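User: Show me an example of a complex going from sequences to structure tokens.

Assistant: Sure. Here are the input components:
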Amino acid sequence: MFQIVNPQNTEKTHLDLLTDETKATIDYWLKKYPHEQRRSAVLGALHAVQDQNGGWISTELMAAVSEYIDIPLVWVREAAEFYSMFHTQPVGRHKISICTNISCMLRGADKVVKYAEDKLNIKLGQTTEDGRITLVMEEECVAACTGAPMMIIDGHYHENLTEETIDEILGGLE
Amino acid sequence: MTETSNQVPEDKVSIEIDGQTVLADKGSMIIHATDAHGINVPRFCYHKKLSIAANCRMCMVDVEKAPKPLPACATPVVDGMKIYTRSKRATSGQKNAMEFLLINHPLDCPICDQGGECELQDVAMGYGRDVSRFVEGKRSVADEDLGSLVASDMTRCIHCTRCVRFLNEIAGTDELGGIGRGDRTYIATAIGQGLDSEMSGNIIDLCPVGALTNKPFRFKARAWELMATAGLSMHDALGSNIYYHTRHGKILRAVPRENESINEAWLSDRDRYGIHGLNNDQDRVTQPMVKQSGQWNVITWEQALTILADKLKDTAAEEVALYTGQHTTSEEYFLLKKLFDQLGSDQHEHRLSTVDFSASFQAPRTEVSLADVAEQKQIIMVGCYARHEQPILNHKIRQAWLNGAEVNAFGPCHFEQNFDLKLDITGHQMDWVKKLGSLALSLAEISGRKPDGALGDWLQQQSADEDINSLAKSLLKNDHKTLFILGQISARHPQAQLIKALVEWMAPLVDASINQVLDGANSMGAALNGLYNDQDIKRNDHAVNLIYQAEIQDFAEPAKIKECLVNSEMTVVFNAFCDEALKSRADLILPIALLPETSGSLINNYGQRQDALVAHKAPGDTKPGWRVLRVLGNILGFDGFEYEDVHEVMQETEQLKSLPTPVPVAIKEIDAYKAKGLVLYAHHGIYDGDALVRRSRPLQESKLATADTVYVNPGDLLSIGFEAGDLVSVEQNGRYAELTLATDEAVPTGSAVINMGRLSTLNINAGELSVSIIGAQS
């Protein structure tokens, strides 16, 4: 729908915020798309800056991505705010996403959420005071319905959750 | 069947809409065909000037053989297609979309500013249920401050993305985006810094709901209380078509009146919000006044015109001078010229922003129509910041660029553009002209042709670099549409005639056209009426100076005109406003109406004559200018001032003969300008151009407004000896302006950029290039 039809950032003042490793990752993604569709590299780039920055993306880093890919800043913000995998506020060392989609919901996801919230004494979207765990606001279906209810911790799936397994898993997090 | 399909032209298909057989363009959408045939299909996200998004789902129609209703805006027509816009399946699709859109939309139209002129409200009347079935909580969205022009109420947004697409496609600034997901989506800027576009107000008209509304107009009136009057913009030479919305004789807002040959469906912010200057009564004059022994006394019109007539009778004709602004109606220009002809004086001038009078007056060149600017393949902007000079012209240049045109620029500054420039050649005011000369030199060398005389000799002193040579080669090679646009920076340049001569020599060589960007809304009308002089009349002292619809700030040489007025016996001001700068030098003030308060015609940059009607009631004893001039002519006993009605004068101005075709400027000698210190670039900010915009608070509070600042290149700070942010004096030939020093990489080395048209720079003459920065105040 939206073409890159406008002159892009002339002032590139945020590029220093990107590490060489992040730049290399963005370059890898940029190579996959034609130049006029370079906007598509934004997802790979956002993952890279999020990893670089301890799990979340600041406004300055969004600006750095927009300057590096040479697309409007608002497009980067749109992508970063759209996907639940991107975090635009500081997060804890571990990100826990509890699936609340239909299969998990039928298998008691609400109880899992309630149990985790009570145990950690935070609500969804919040981070524990010690900065250890963030309960991610929402997670859509990640195709692990056979193991419902399930949650993702730092990219790893944990399935068939019970109160005991939740205790065990959460207790094991640094 | 075969017979009918034989009659269908190759680029068309035959379709049937609600039983009516019509032809539609191949590849067009169903909604194009229904719109062309007056069949109403409801829509929110579709707009004929924007790309197709198909995200509101309101325009559902029933297409035979399709398994479900289809969006009319995104379904291409196919030969033999049968479309039903009112069938049960179509209306049920529309009703469901309507109900879905209303889920999160507040149902509080009585407190919404858009109520009464809301597309959502209108369509809901036709397609919505009378009672909402939605009982759950509605979402609410925090509002963002978008600046002084556009108000936001984002809870009302239905995510049609017209505003997002406008800023992406037309304005070219990509400022708004859809943030978040699903029902939590909201429209916002990237960093919350408001809108920068000079066309931002158009998103108000585009918004089909009350999410984006006109901030200064907010909660001032309901649509049904307003009367629309067809008017013309007076802030640039395009004459953008406007509807003024008035209540009880007062203009409350301006909206675009569609004219495909000029402003299309758009309006620049200057044209939309300029009218708010009318309501600024700080230095509005409402009664004739005379200065008697240092005191201002209110007098009657009869007394005022008698004082003036007596003075004119007692003064030798050549001792009477007239300076007229460039946004006055042709009818007033016509009567002024008639008056001066019978008075016997040729000391009249409308080119207040010109400083180079070294060649005789020539008709302005506009060889390509405004709409055709978008068709050009190569555009060279010479001393032109179209975005601020004529925002709609800039829109056409951008359209040309989007269609693949190459745009190059020569000028005194790197201006922020909404398209890419192939080459942006800058230098201080003398340097960039030399660089333009080097393009001519390069063209001369490659083509083996050379201009004669002084111009040819001057060219030999220039030297071309690789960039210039490659531009010259591409210009010579091309066999497509090339256009030189001579902007207002060129027109106001002390070497304006040299710049024009260079372009006039280059254009025929590369088979290019030339368009000049004119200042003011009606300088063409003033020129047609002959209100010019081949010399600079400011160089002569006059006993009587008439200032007609102009302020000191309108002069490119305000310091010079102040001197003229002080040295005269009598200064007569025909104005709607009179600020202290003018009042302190005036002897007689006659309050006359501004354009939206008077009828008349304007001739735009492209020679189109358009009429404007009275939209606003002028305050107090203010009179339309044509009436005042008519009475003055009668008191003086002159012939041909017996008009009863402005239309009689309009009939006369319709007969005006067009100006003779301009001949190229013949340059006799070229001043070797030598500037000491910094070289002045007298910049004209977008909202410093006329009495109304200077007084329009929404515009002055917007992000594009200028400040009392002098800009230099950061590299020059060391030699200047002051820091950015310091209050400094800018000295020009013993006169001073107190300004704040600022730096900008866009300013070339050795240059000082000063904002003209402001009270702070009335001591600066644009024509004198040497300035220095001295003495910071503590």
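The lines above are the inputs; the final block is the predicted structure for all two components together. The two ends of chain A are 45 Å apart (CA to CA).
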